[in-house]
Specification:
Layout: H1 7-31, H2 37-61, H3 79-82, H4 91-123, H5 128-154
Length: 161
């Protein structure tokens, strides 16, 4: 069954495609900048999830029903490991921690922004299939933000008072 997109849906899907490309690029780039293997693993996994979102958006832009399944992706939850504390003993670790904090802060801000754009898209979707796909992606973007927050909070980068 082909997906017929309204002009508005096509416009916000084109925007979503660009946003997903930005997310993929940031996660890939930042993965190479962090020295924390746990954070590198988190960034690599989230990059894969962003690629899946990009694929979903592309499918809809091509008039195809989106495949929301994560089949074939290794998307194990890192929430438990993201909450583990690590000790910080050397100045190099402290400097790396500051860099990691900046990377995480930028990615958390990006996830907040992208999630907000999907929120608008959900309400502006005429097609139930597009709406469902946008809701699916939005929920996953929020989960990404939660995982980044949990990592930051457990590593003293984000203090909740």
């Amino acid at each position: 069954m082909n997906l017929q997109l309204s002009q508005k849906e096509r416009m916000f899907l084109e925007d979503a495609k660009i946003q997903e490309e930005v997310c993929i690029e940031k996660y890939n780039n930042y993965s190479g900048q962090t020295q924390d293997p746990q954070l590198k693993q988190l960034f690599n996994r989230l990059s894969g999830e962003e690629q899946h979102h990009h694929d979903i958006v592309n499918q809809m832009l091509q008039g195809q029903q989106p495949n929301l399944s994560h089949a074939g992706l290794n998307l194990q939850s890192q929430q438990g490991t993201a909450q583990q504390n690590t000790s910080q003993g050397t100045a190099g670790t402290q400097q790396g921690n500051q860099r990691d904090k900046m990377l995480c802060t930028d990615l958390l801000s990006t996830e907040k922004y992208v999630s907000g754009t999907y929120d608008s898209d959900v309400f502006e979707s005429a097609s139930p299939a597009v709406r469902q796909a946008m809701q699916h992606i939005q929920q996953e973007e929020q989960k990404h933000g939660e995982e980044l927050f949990n990592y930051m909070n457990s590593h003293g980068m984000y203090n909740v008072k």
